[in-house]
Amino acid sequence: PTKKLSERWLGPFPILKKVSTHAYHLKLPSQWKSIHPVFHISLLEPVKTSTIPNRYQEPPPPIIIEEEEEWEVSQILDSKLKRGKLWYLV
């Protein structure tokens, strides 16, 4: 997939409440606790469902927290100790 054709938006996220005429409070994932959950309407987009059946939806990009990428781990398959540091196979 190319960057040009990939999704520009993350989500969808449920709206918890309307804060003002131009801002909404969203329910963000718990791992995004460093991101303020209130967004201006110019940063929000209605959900668009695909009209193409079985269309591949690219997974969301990695989460950047404190300038480091973070990935959600679905399962730890193995681990080993190397030079005093624990390494995981996920």
Automatic annotation (TrEMBL):
SUPFAM superfamilies: Chromo domain-like. It holds the Pfam family SH3_Tf2-1. It comes from the Eukaryota. Residues 2-47 form the Tf2-1-like SH3-like domain. Transmembrane segments: none annotated. This is Tf2-1-like SH3-like domain-containing protein. It comes from Austropuccinia psidii MF-1. The lineage of its organism: Eukaryota, Fungi, Dikarya, Basidiomycota, Pucciniomycotina.
